[in-house]
Amino acid sequence: MKNIEISFIKKEIEITFNNLSSYFYTKLRYKFINDYQLLLSNITIESKKNNQVTSIDLRSLNIFSLNKKSLTLIRRFSEIDQNHFYKNTYNSKFNSININKLKNIIKRRKFTSRNELLALYAYLYVFTSELTNKNITTVLSINTGYSESYIKSLNKEIFRKKYLKKISKGTSGGVLTSKTLDYFNSLKFQQY
Question: Is 113 exposed, middle or buried (0-12, 13-18, 19+ CB in 10 A)?
Fold first, then answer.
């Protein structure tokens, strides 16, 4: 049995960690909330050999780290085997945006309007939130070449102008709004 298994169940993705404990398996299930984002919808802990799972065992789990690791694995899997990923999820847009190209567009100020910047930055904000556990303002400042104070004002602006909406649970950073998704689905964005 592999240490980590990825399986697809009715357009949902399940990551099984077999080596976190000698007593139980941990399964994280994800569903798509839009074409570009996944939501952690379910966490299951199953006993391996009819052992009782104790609260001490549960405290040893770091769900935050497991979530980040799982999202990284799913992104890598979608890059390596795009056809298999599409066949099981019917989603060809997930992980289709080249993040390095997006960073360069923002860094070199190659966008044509403020709206374009905010849509691109909203995606970068969510992507960075999913993959880092450091101060997001500092990480985005380094990635974009903008000052931390300007990044803080951009963070406020993407929420205020509704390019990203906050939710209380589930996704790091927030959820891309229809305003951002419409831009990503437009012909103008396809040039990237």
Answer: exposed
